[in-house]
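Predict both folds.
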Amino acid sequence: MIDIKILRADPERVKANCARRGTDIDIDALFELDKSYLQLLQDVEGIRARRNELADECKNNPDAREQMKTLKQDLSAKECELGEVKAKVEESMAWLPNFLDDTVPDGHGDEDNFQISTWGEMPTFDFEARDHQALGEQLDIIDTKRGAKVAQSGFFYWKGQGAQLAAALFFWTQQELIKRGFTLFFSPCVAKQQTLFGTGYLPFFADQTYNLESEDLSLIGTSEQTLVAYHSDETLPAAELPHCYTAFTPCFRTEAGSYGKETRGIFRVHQFHKVEQIVFCMPDESPKFHQMCQDNEQALMELLGLPYRVVNVCVGDMGAPGYKKFDVEAWFPGYGGYREVTSNTNLTDFQSRRLGIRYNDGSGGKGFVHTISATAVTDRVVCAIMENFQDADGCITVPEVLRPYTGFDRLTP
């Protein structure tokens, strides 16, 4: 949520940001509605002050008692109106997207993202490269048919050596992040609606969420939701920042709106698995920690030996809470192109303002912390390993850093 003071001081800035981000909110109407709220608030406070002045007079003054009755009636009506207008203002404010960094490129979708850098050499094969689905079926390590049988299409099994490879990647990644100063969590896999609202997934991504019937709970789409909300309604000592957290969780998304996108294999599914990076930091340090998380993502890819590129995500491909976002896209030989495997977003104070996460520097300096949400790895990285390190027989070489955790150096039939 953006600071309402910005709307009051510079509505044209808010209007321009909404126009660029394609948000259909009547800012002029919201500005006037907020003015009405401020006037009602002033009226209510004035009536309350007059009520307090009359309190002592009421004991011996009949006229004061009559005035008090009228004041109470007026106050009750005004407070009711104030509550209704406040709710309307807050509802509209909840839909306003975050502001954007000046370096965010224009564009409508991922095809308009701006390439920043590349790393690694794309593998060349003297055979036709298979995609991860074909490899998974040949090696019997991915089972989408039985996933659909026991759940529905979009759910799958890692099996045998595939499950061992995936588990090795996730465990190794957590150990690497711990070395880099992250605190490891086991997180809940469900969250309240307020948690989803506070992290910016509601109302913007409501159609992506699996809700639990008759419960104020939803399955999480990422551990970002539970890790960021861990400090909701808390004030953090500035001297203790940054807090760097990580967790491995299953993640659940309906993938509504994905019709027409490439869905072969397990690249776009309803349940996937992810190691996340979350940082709480002082506002002036969020660019630094945004870059730190980016360095971590790229270091992991390089240790795995996976060729990749980094893109600066355009405005049309960035979620409403984001201020600036990078994606890492691995090369997928079987697909014949780069595909997103991780993302890294500086959310500034958008989440902390909604969740009430503040800092106090002990010298009178107070405010809202900034948050960074960055993927470390997902199942997509396993798929990239499969496609990049395949051989003519369909076997897969395990990256050297993962071999101590898999116990083998090749996946074979």
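Second protein follows, with its predicted structure tokens after the sequence.
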Amino acid sequence: MGWAVLNRRPIFYIPKNKSMTFKKQILFLATGIITTAVSFGQSKPKFEASFAKDFVMPRMRVIVDNDFGGDPDGLFQLAHQVLSPSAEIRGIIGSHLKPGDPFDASNETATNAVKKAKELLSIMKLQDKFPVFEGSNLQLKDSKTPNVSEGAKAIVKEAMREDVKTPLYILCGAGLTEVASAYLIEPKIADRIILVWIGGPEYSDLATPPPGYTSLEYNLGIDIAAGQVVFNDSKIPIWQVPRNAYRETLLAYSELLLKVKTQGKTGEYLTEKIESLMKRVQLFNLHIGETYIMGDSPLVLLTALQSSFEADPSSSFYALKQSPLINAQGLYEMNIKGRDIRVYHHLDTRLMFEDFFNKLQFKSKK
């Protein structure tokens, strides 16, 4: 063998074959030079950082309901959701926290949640694309009286539409105030929505509580009366992601730095929210290690990332259980008349996180 050389750099072999005539060797060399010259003159194809609209179309409607002023996992979920074209976002609701919550101890936590949602959308240059509604700043005073907020009215309006056939999912990563209020305003929505809710304690036959657990789970504790409306009184279809399942969604700090922070202004913004929290808790001599629970991200996994055929969250596992009664302490009680609900006990975190990382990269390349 011999090398053909261009600018002192070898570019291909010339076979030294005694059976090959001189003429054939010349033709071989000429063909190689032409091919190489063409390839050197061509520029690399430009990376198209977007989903082709011809291939990914909306096949469901969603309303996102979250306490964006609290745990920053809600902002990660929102960023992922707005980058997922198979789910048409019909509204984003900023919901309240429990009174005195360390994330925001003010009396305007839903108002502040709206500000946070709009701040993220502005960072992503999507500030005019989605309607953002304010939920109630208060818990329900009882299980019969709705809080008539803009968020609750938005749920009713979208659920009662007659001009669309795509399913409507209410994606709730917070308390259930807005969903319960919407139901109390118009009970007919129970036949027109699917509620995907991050919240509720473990079911004893499916999981063991974490070490040092509190019996009252965080999101259910935001508004127990609202939980009673949805679970005890309504017939709303529920896909529940209780505490044991949402605790599976661990994002490593190394992944945050390499796969999120590096992806433009959106990645920097989201990373700052986690790093700021890590610094803040150290003031109280708390150290949260090197993972963070992205507990609201299953809202995207169970909707936008459903299977292509026989659409369903087919890579995550659930059990059908009778809906329990929620008591005044926010604990489950047996309900022999309860409708079947889905209780997820294992989530496909690989699909969820890899899709998030990839979409952030698409976004940063635009």
